[in-house]
Design goal:
EC number: 2.3.1.286
Main location: cytoplasm
Catalytic activity: N(6)-succinyl-L-lysyl-[protein] + NAD(+) + H2O = 2''-O-succinyl-ADP-D-ribose + nicotinamide + L-lysyl-[protein]; N(6)-acetyl-L-lysyl-[protein] + NAD(+) + H2O = 2''-O-acetyl-ADP-D-ribose + nicotinamide + L-lysyl-[protein]
Pfam family, one: SIR2
Protein name: NAD-dependent protein deacylase
Bound molecules: ligand BJW, zinc ion
CATH class of the largest domain: Alpha Beta
CATH superfamily of the largest domain: TPP-binding domain
Strand content: 15-25%
Distance between the termini: 12 Å
Strand order of the largest sheet: 5-4-1-9-10-11
Length: 237
């Protein structure tokens, strides 16, 4: 197919490729997205649960949400989309900037992954500087730190800053790339949705892979209206 030949050429000729990924890339691994019909959990709006206020109002409820998601994520496998990106990393300069906390890029074999919004396995204390990784469930909800304060998932909620070192590094990669491929994100959440703007400043080509229109579809050089597990393998085949 001619269209895919030209994409393959773009990929082959690119000096540095940056992927910006969101929940949609893991949808075909059975992990729900945040918005649209998927964005409900027990009738709660996922967007309202992903805030520090929701956590302090009802930490038990927010922990139940993360516990369920952690179970789902641990039993999930990377799909053809994650695998294609990992494959591409073997023969091109590829960095993945992900908003996802599910670790599926790494599980697929990607090694250059920056997690902008934290990770489902990480926890930290709401008061002291304790942090850790969890592989099994806590016996108590909400779990408590040795200092007596409540532990929280080490993820980035609305109104919170992204980890500054990770964010600064992400901007550098976005500034340097000549091809940015934006996959499975609605691009409504800042500051992650500014990454394509940094790339554009370097005259990078922007490709979007998403079955639906997004906030920035009109800014893209090319839009592929397909799912990521269908579209991404074409980039490496
Ligand atoms: C497929 C597919 C398939 C489906 N294949 N595609 C007013 C008050 C306070 C703050 C703000 C405000 N106005 C703006 C802000 C800033 C705020 C923000 O952007 N809000 C907007 C919603 C308006 N941002 C922040 O607060 C950020 N911090 C910040 O700005 O710090 C500075 C600051 C400090 C203090 C005050 C104000 C600013 C932090 C944002 C943190 C976002 N956190 C979450 C939760 C992470 C942890 C967790 O996972 O639980 O991150 S929310 C959620 O949204 C999650 C996601 O990473 C993120 C993005 O969602 P994503 O990935 O795009 O998913 P969806 O569901 O939206 O889209 C899926 C897409 O996939 C769709 O397009 C589908 O079509 C597509 N798709 N199947 C390919 N098979
Ligand atoms: Zn503590």
């Amino acid at each position: 197919m001619k269209m895919f030949e030209s994409i393959k050429d773009q990929v082959k000729n690119a000096k540095k490729i940056v992927f910006v990924t969101g929940a949609g890339i893991s949808q075909e691994s059975g992990i729900p997205t945040f918005r649209g019909k998927d964005g409900l959990w027990r009738n709660y709006d996922a967007m309202k649960l992903a805030t520090i206020d929701a956590f302090y109002d009802d930490p038990k409820l927010v922990w139940e949400w993360y516990n369920e998601r952690r179970h789902n994520i641990f039993s999930a496998n990377p799909n053809q989309g994650h695998k294609a990106i990992a494959e591409l990393e073997k023969f091109a300069d590829v960095v993945s900037l992900t908003q996802n906390i599910d670790g599926l890029h790494q599980k697929a074999g990607s090694t250059k992954v920056l997690e902008l919004h934290g990770s489902i396995v990480k926890i930290k204390c709401t008061v002291c500087d304790f942090s850790d990784e969890i592989m099994t469930d806590f016996t108590e909800n909400p779990p408590l730190c040795k200092c007596g304060s409540i532990l929280r998932p080490d993820v980035v909620w609305f109104g919170e800053s992204l980890p500054q070192d990770v964010w600064q590094e992400a901007i550098i990669h976005a500034n340097q790339c000549d091809l940015m491929i934006i996959v499975g994100t609605s691009l409504v959440v800042s500051p992650a949705n500014t990454l394509p703007i940094y790339a554009k400043q370097n005259n990078a080509m922007l490709i979007e892979i998403n079955p639906e229109n997004t906030e920035m579809s009109s800014e893209m050089d090319l839009v592929i209206r397909n799912t990521s597990a269908n579209a991404l393998p074409e980039f490496v085949s």
